[in-house]
């Protein structure tokens, strides 16, 4: 494909992207099979039952090779249940990244716990194992890792730290369904995997979430937390069984069966669709290899790791390689070419007033420090790598189909801007 053009679209030149993308970016893919599955539930009047959901759970567990899978009404609910199952309660702490969607860590507040935010690695955007251990203390109950934008966390050192200090690891897999770390499915490496499967995710079920684990006790605790209708038959541990019949968390977290019905169809189709996404996204990055300022956000090809369905794909940006051009100006120029580029990523949670100043539950002090005897609030400068990332990453096109001619045009938009960055400064 062409490697350079002397006239950028933002300066009046022709656009790099001229082709109609058609359904290249359409998601989710809904077929007659999905519609029939929904109609079957509706016609049977089974929207609020659990038998379809339980079949989905069996299939979801089998896909991951785990003993237990528990469907939830949302990924947020699944993450909260995972935290509680891991023993997170009043006065406790979890460790997690600040660069993530809020649901990865904020449920700790509902449990009376608080959050100690750790750094991320600049090349993965995932929690930095080297910044975890120093934060562990007698209050720490869990480490929440997020496979951010599909990139798998470095799980081996994280699990070694967790085992050394006897704390649980919760994997937030919301961005990385089907992703692998050194050949292993993410979500199966920590003590619990939890994830959203809402309709925008790589595995699009509808509004819903999942919790997966090999541990029967953790599974039973999650059932007890928000699945009261199942406690009578699924709670066997003597610490849980006497309290069957009511949800310990006062929540009703079961998945709606329309979501379960769609999910079963989507799961059957997911491997093939994920493989096509992987092929498409890797082709995109291969086209941009060596372009100044543009760095792929993907594991090394020979590592046995990959980004799964590549939800919310991002790239890394080196402004110094482009003479100091800001990522915002770079994105503006790419978009003018007809491309897709969104500077930054999720808001940084450790700097948000809700995490530092809000008294959510009426304790008379900020919730972040309401149940602890130390001030964990983290202001500007406390996580320098994390705080640098909004200027060092950007959202890229998420290709759902392998259509080389389309992908090449979108890659050309990036190459064209990078190779003519001097005209934008």
Which CATH architecture of the largest domain?
Answer: 3-Layer(aba) Sandwich
User: How do the helices and strands follow one another from N- to C-terminus?
Assistant: HHEHEHEEHEEEEEHHHEEHEHHEH
| Poorly predicted parts | 1-5
- Helix fraction bin: 25-40%
Radius of gyration over all CA atoms, rounded: 22 Å
Q: What is the averaged pLDDT score?
A: 97
Main pleated sheet: 7 strands, mixed
Shape: globular
Task: Give the helix/strand class.
Answer: alpha/beta
As for the number of domains, it is: 2
DSSP helix count? 12
Strand segment tally:
13
Name of the top-level CATH class of the largest domain: Alpha Beta
Distance between the termini: 26 Å
Give the percentage of residues in beta strands: 5-15%
**CATH homologous superfamily label of the largest domain:** Type I PLP-dependent aspartate aminotransferase-like (Major domain)
Provide tags for this entry.
12% strand; 12 helices; disordered N terminus; 425 residues; alpha/beta; Aspartate Aminotransferase, domain 1; seven-stranded mixed beta sheet; single chain; 13 strands; Aspartate Aminotransferase, domain 2; four-stranded antiparallel beta sheet
């Amino acid at each position: 494909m062409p490697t350079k053009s002397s006239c950028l679209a933002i300066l009046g030149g022709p656009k790099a992207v001229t082709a109609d993308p058609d359904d290249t970016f359409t998601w989710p893919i809904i077929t007659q099979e999905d519609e029939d599955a929904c109609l079957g539930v509706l016609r049977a009047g089974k929207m609020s039952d659990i038998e379809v959901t339980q079949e989905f759970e069996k299939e979801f567990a089998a896909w991951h090779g785990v003993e237990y899978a528990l469907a939830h009404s949302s990924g947020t609910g699944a993450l909260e249940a995972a935290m509680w199952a891991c023993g997170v309660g009043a006065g406790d702490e979890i460790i997690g990244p600040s660069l993530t969607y809020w649901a990865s860590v904020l449920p700790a507040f509902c449990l009376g716990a608080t959050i100690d935010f750790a750094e991320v690695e600049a090349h993965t955007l995932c929690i930095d194992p080297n910044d975890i251990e120093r934060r562990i203390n007698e209050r720490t109950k869990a480490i929440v890792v997020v496979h951010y934008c599909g990139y798998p966390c470095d799980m081996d050192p994280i699990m070694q730290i967790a085992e050394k200090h006897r704390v649980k690891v919760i994997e937030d897999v919301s961005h990385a369904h089907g992703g692998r770390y050194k050949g292993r499915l993410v979500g199966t490496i920590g003590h619990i995997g939890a994830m959203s499967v809402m309709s925008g995710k790589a595995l699009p079920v509808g509004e819903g979430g999942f919790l997966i684990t090999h541990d029967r006790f953790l599974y039973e605790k999650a059932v007890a937390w928000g699945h009261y209708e199942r406690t009578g038959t699924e709670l066997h541990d003597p610490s849980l069984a006497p309290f069957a019949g009511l949800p310990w968390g006062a929540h009703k977290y079961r998945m709606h069966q329309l979501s379960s019905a769609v999910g079963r169809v989507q799961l059957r189709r997911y491997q093939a669709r994920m493989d096509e996404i992987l092929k498409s996204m890797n082709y995109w990055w291969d086209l941009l290899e060596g372009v100044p300022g543009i760095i792929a956000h993907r594991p090394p090809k020979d590592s046995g790791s990959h980004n799964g369905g590549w939800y919310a794909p991002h790239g890394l940006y080196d402004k110094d390689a482009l003479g100091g051009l800001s990522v915002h100006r770079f994105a503006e120029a790419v978009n003018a070419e007809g491309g897709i580029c969104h500077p930054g990523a999720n808001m940084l949670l450790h700097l948000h007033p809700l995490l530092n100043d809000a008294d959510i539950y009426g304790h008379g002090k900020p919730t972040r420090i309401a149940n602890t005897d130390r001030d964990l609030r983290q202001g500007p400068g406390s996580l320098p790598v994390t705080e640098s990332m909004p200027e060092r990453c950007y959202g890229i096109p998420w290709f759902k189909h392998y259509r080389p001619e389309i992908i090449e045009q979108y890659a050309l938009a990036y190459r064209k801007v990078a190779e003519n960055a001097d005209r934008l400064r």
